[in-house]
Write a structure and sequence with these properties.
The chain is of the alpha+beta class and about 375 residues long. It has eleven helices and twelve strands. The strands form three sheets. It has a five-stranded antiparallel β-sheet. The radius of gyration is 34 Å and the shape is elongated. The protein binds adenosine-5'-diphosphate and magnesium ion (MG). The site of adenosine-5'-diphosphate (ADP) has 23 residues, from helix 10 and helix 11.
Length: about 375
């Protein structure tokens, strides 16, 4: 920057750059370029400044700079000028200071950014400022911010308010399917009620996933880790998925070595994690296939390895599967109604909330391996 100015001065001295070039450059700047003398009287006001502030150069020439500032900032500005004058030769660049406000001729205030430089001209101080009107930029930023907040709010409210009716349907269906009631009803009816129950269950887990996704996005996915036996959680999770695996004619086995250290984990979140991962493994594995879960102690962590012999994930899809709402080519086909592309982002959120790490390897046509670490509980 300084070198460039020196080069320009040097060139000007040698008449390579005529003064008309500088005034031409200042004229085409869309930013306001303003200079004031050491009494803060305006001595230069380019076309950009005229456009931004609504004053003509000859109207403001000789007047105090304060007319370009909202009333309430004028006193503070005087202070800044003194401070700035004292700080020798220092330039203040665009965006360095948080937020400035300008005042247009018609009384409208606007947000701006300014770069300010003290220049010595024939032994006197001149302050030069380049000022940018950032009204449009700020408006665009506000719109984006509002849209994001509105979307998160809506998702949160919708998820909350949908849960109650979905739960009511689920509970009522369950009560009809109670042994005592069931006996008194024809089979055609109980079969349909079972379907209603299943649909309500799906709705409930989708809502739950949406809620978790909004929590993840706002960093509010909390876990409450307690020391626990990894083997017990694995067995419980595998048992919970057993009927799904059986229905899909897929074998589901877990291998847990003896003497595994306890992990520090949130039991509910870890069941959810297993449910998402084993659910995927079953969903993407054709009948006759196998899903296996192996657990290893590995230093101060426990490594979980979940393998399936399913369709695998293509190299194009693999880098994206942890993105929310992302579904691979095969995720959107016949199985699309059993997921919204939220299972893996939530799984990753859960693992990372425990300070762990999760990753996937896959060979299309051969199967997929998901690995993740959970921390070992410190000795009591
Ligand atoms: N075990 C797996 N085998 C093959 N593809 C998988 C497996 N797990 C995840 N995927 C791919 O990752 C995508 C995202 O998974 P997920 O977030 O659980 O969403 P969903 O299950 O709702 O499609 C899936 O749509 C699928 O393409
Ligand atoms: Mg899934």
């Amino acid at each position: 920057m300084k070198d460039a100015i020196q080069a320009a001065e040097h060139a000007a001295m040698h008449k390579l750059l005529p003064p008309s070039l500088f005034s031409g450059l200042l004229a085409i700047s869309s930013d306001a370029v303003i200079a004031v003398d050491d009494e803060q009287r305006i001595i230069f006001f380019n076309e950009g400044a005229e456009r931004i502030f609504g004053w003509a150069a000859d109207e403001v020439g000789g007047r105090y700079l304060e007319i370009l500032l909202p009333e309430r900032y004028r006193a503070a500005h005087r202070g800044h000028v003194h401070g700035f004058g004292a700080a020798h030769g220092r330039a203040r660049l665009m965006g360095e200071r948080q937020q400035l406000s300008g005042l247009r001729r018609d009384g409208e205030e606007f947000p701006c950014e300014a770069a300010i430089q003290r220049i010595e001209v024939e032994g006197r101080n001149v302050f030069a400022a380049v000022l940018r009107d950032i009204t449009a930029r700020q408006r665009a930023e506000d719109t984006v911010r509002e849209a994001v907040t509105a979307r998160e709010d809506m998702l949160g409210i919708v998820s909350h308010d949908l849960r109650n009716p979905a739960n009511a349907v689920k509970m009522l269906a369950k009560s009809i399917l109670d042994d005592a009631t069931r006996e008194r009803l024809p089979e055609q009816i109980t079969e349909r009620v079972a379907m209603i129950q299943q649909a309500a269950q799906q709705m409930d887990s989708l809502i739950q996933d949406l809620l978790d996704t909004t929590r993840l996005a706002s960093g509010r996915l909390r876990v409450d880790p307690q020391p626990m036996d990894a083997g017990v959680v694995v067995e419980r999770s595998v048992d919970a998925m057993r009927s799904l695996a059986d229905a899909a004619r897929i074998s589901l086995e877990a291998t847990v070595p003896a003497g595994l250290p306890q992990v520090l984990a949130d039991a509910d979140r870890v069941s959810q994690l297993f449910s998402n991962l084993i659910g995927n493994a079953i969903k993407f594995t054709p009948p006759g296939g196998a899903v296996t879960l192996v657990v290893h102690a590995d230093g101060d962590a426990v490594l979980f390895v979940l393998r399936d012999t399913g369709v695998g994930i293509s190299a194009e899809d693999l880098p994206h599967v942890f993105e929310r709402f992302y579904q691979g080519e095969r995720g959107t086909g016949r199985t699309a109604r059993h997921g919204a592309g939220l299972g893996l982002p939530i799984a990753r959120g859960i693992v990372e909330a425990h300070g762990g790490h999760i990753w996937i390897d896959s060979l299309p046509g051969a199967g997929t391996t998901v690995r993740f670490y959970l921390p070992v509980a410190p000795p009591a």
